[in-house]
User: Which sequence fits this backbone?
């Protein structure tokens, strides 16, 4: 089966309506062979020259919910934030909808803060505008972006010859490349995707694990009456990220969060879609007049479907599927999504604080085994009380305890790295391997740069020594 994609429109296939006999097929093949021998090499060279002449910057997210994501920015610049209108969308709840903008000025790349709630920092300093170059770090919310490449951007110091000839050459190369590509397209028309390629796997196929499903989900529930409007928006987005947003007018509360979702959880939910017969479900009439509704939009492999029904309405299959989706959301984010009163959020935060203190309040020898979990629990507790107004006293206790545990964990990991470096200097591969494995155990987050560094070193030891040092 072809690699699934998230499609939002119809699949358009171009089908040749002319029946070709044997002679015409042979002619077409000969022409294509000539094209490949005579035109393809210069066309490839032109395309490479064009790509090299187009300026771009490359960035990588080195900390935050979307650790590891890369993106490029050309001379047009890019708008960064949570909004779907941004050029670079980052699923970080602490970002503003339009957080900052990257742009070119006088041949140099700049970043400008767009009056964001949590500001923009460059190399640790808060800025309104700042120039960027290779290895500078942009901090926005909980996300840190590294400038990886500054290749190709014209500078004011380049020679007049470059400025005079490269820009016109770029236009000429682009025009020739497009013409050659169009000629090649008419010589060779790709076959129409078969029905088997675009079919949605059955529940039995998923249950037998013969197919790994692709699922994109947009679940929206709104309940309105004379007193309040309450909405829940739950999404599963590539690459395997779940987001939720809860808004309630009565309590003036707006809570949103993003977490990774495992392939196992996606498979379970995908199987629920298959068993419900989702693609055969229909919406009720006159939905535009209903003040409360549930809307489920799903992308399963190459197919998409939208169903809208009143809350509590629709078929039994639709209601069961909606309940299963909300159960998945509660598993990922916690039961606060059903009860987000101040009292419940305070209760949950107090439980997390007590658990973190209990995990860290053990003998010194095993304390470091629990520090990472304690920090994660305190991060969650701080997020729970963030929307309570006025801010409760427990928020200060949570922040102070979290920062202390985080410093302890950072110092501990730094000490282990130092010991591993000393082991490497004395060529003690066994000790270095054990220390690097200890880092992976004490810091079980493959989005953390330190985890990836330790993992890469282990892989290098395995390659050099031929042993089984992989994590």
Assistant:
């Amino acid at each position: 089966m072809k690699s699934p994609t998230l499609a939002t429109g119809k699949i358009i296939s171009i089908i040749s309506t002319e029946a070709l006999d044997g002679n015409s097929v042979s002619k077409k093949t000969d022409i294509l062979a000539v094209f490949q021998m005579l035109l393809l090499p210069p066309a490839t060279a032109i395309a490479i020259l064009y790509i090299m002449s187009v300026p771009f910057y490359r960035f990588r997210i080195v900390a935050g919910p979307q650790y590891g994501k890369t993106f490029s920015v050309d001379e047009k610049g890019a708008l960064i934030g949570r909004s779907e209108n941004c050029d670079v969308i980052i699923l970080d709840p602490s970002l503003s909808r339009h957080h900052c903008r990257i742009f070119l000025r006088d041949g140099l790349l700049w970043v400008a803060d767009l009056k964001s709630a949590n500001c923009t920092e460059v190399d640790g300093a808060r800025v309104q505008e700042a120039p960027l170059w290779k290895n500078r770090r942009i901090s926005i919310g909980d996300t840190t972006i590294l400038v990886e490449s500054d290749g190709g951007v014209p500078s004011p110091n380049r020679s007049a010859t470059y400025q005079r000839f490269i820009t016109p050459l770029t236009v000429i190369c682009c025009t020739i490349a497009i013409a050659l590509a169009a000629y090649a397209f008419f010589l060779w028309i790709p076959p129409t995707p078969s029905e088997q390629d675009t079919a949605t796997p059955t529940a039995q196929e998923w249950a037998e694990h013969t197919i790994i499903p692709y699922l994109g989900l947009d679940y929206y529930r709104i309940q309105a009456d004379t007193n309040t409007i309450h909405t829940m928006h739950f999404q599963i987005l590539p690459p395997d990220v779940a987001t939720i947003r809860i808004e309630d007018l009565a309590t003036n509360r707006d809570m949103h969060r993003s977490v990774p979702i495992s392939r196992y959880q996606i498979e379970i939910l995908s199987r629920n879609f298959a068993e419900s017969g989702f693609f055969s479900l229909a919406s009720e009439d006159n939905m535009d007049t209903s003040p409360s509704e549930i809307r489920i939009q799903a992308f399963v492999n190459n197919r998409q479907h939208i169903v809208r029904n009143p809350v509590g309405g629709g078929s039994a299959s639709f209601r069961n599927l909606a309940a299963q989706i909300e159960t998945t959301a509660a598993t990922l984010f916690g039961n606060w999504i059903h009860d987000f009163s101040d009292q419940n959020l305070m209760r949950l935060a107090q439980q997390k604080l007590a658990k973190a203190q209990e995990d860290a309040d053990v003998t010194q020898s095993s304390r470091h085994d629990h520090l990472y979990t304690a920090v994660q629990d305190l991060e969650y507790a701080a997020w729970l009380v963030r929307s309570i107004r006025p801010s409760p006293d427990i928020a200060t206790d949570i922040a102070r305890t979290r920062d202390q545990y985080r410093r302890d964990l950072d110092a501990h990991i730094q000490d282990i790295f130092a010991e591993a470096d000393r082991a490497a200097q004395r060529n003690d591969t066994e000790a270095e391997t054990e220390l690097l494995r200890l880092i992976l155990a004490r810091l079980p987050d493959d989005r953390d740069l330190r985890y990836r560094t330790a993992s890469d070193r282990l892989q290098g030891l395995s390659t050099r020594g031929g042993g089984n040092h992989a994590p």
